[in-house]
Amino acid sequence: MAKKSYFVTGTDTGVGKTMVSAAILEAAKAQGKRTLAMKPIASGCDQTPEGLRNEDALMLQQAITEKLPYDQINPIALEPAIAPHVAAQQAGKTVTAQRLVGFCRGLQIQPADLLLVEGAGGWRVPLNDRETYAAMPRELDMPVILVVALKLGCINHALLSAEAIRSDGLAVAGWVANRVESEAMDCEQETLNYLSTHLGTPCLGVLPWLEQPKPAALVRYLNIGPLFES
After folding, report:
1. Model confidence at 31, in pLDDT bands (50, 70, 90)?
2. Which of 11, 42, 66, 175, by CA, is between 20 and 30 Å from 153?
3. pTM score of the predicted model
């Protein structure tokens, strides 16, 4: 059974959740840990001879140590690159939190030191008309890793996301700052200092902007120790 399981969310869409998740998995691998990962829902998938495939899910598949078929990593693959609940409606599929919980529990029972489950967009992304994605980690009582894109407005987005996660009864296990633009944001260090003081959870790393980022190249910027301490 996976000893440590975490849900990875972001302050918004396009903040680098997959790259951060893959880098954490690479860092764990470098420490001799056995790892698993999944992205239960992925929109923006490409048609291939093997079926629909998502580049983010493929990146996770490459980063983990334990071999898994693609369908276990990404059980719900949707072609349109739009909000998952809309893509599911267009595909005639019903997505519920309970269904996603079942997929996750299927991986949790497999032996590993670390399981990462990557969400879609931010914390309140809809699954359907009644539920948001947050219902799944809430049902699993899964601590959360928050990815913060370093850009104007990120303090507000990060604090609101952490507040929402905690109000749903879950722990914020740590946060990762990710530079998503080639030019550093104004007052970046002051922003990092404020977040470090006010998020109330360990900073697991500050990742640089790279023109062609590779998860393995980001390992040295991470400190994943807090994920295995408790």
Report:
1. very high
2. 42
3. 0.95
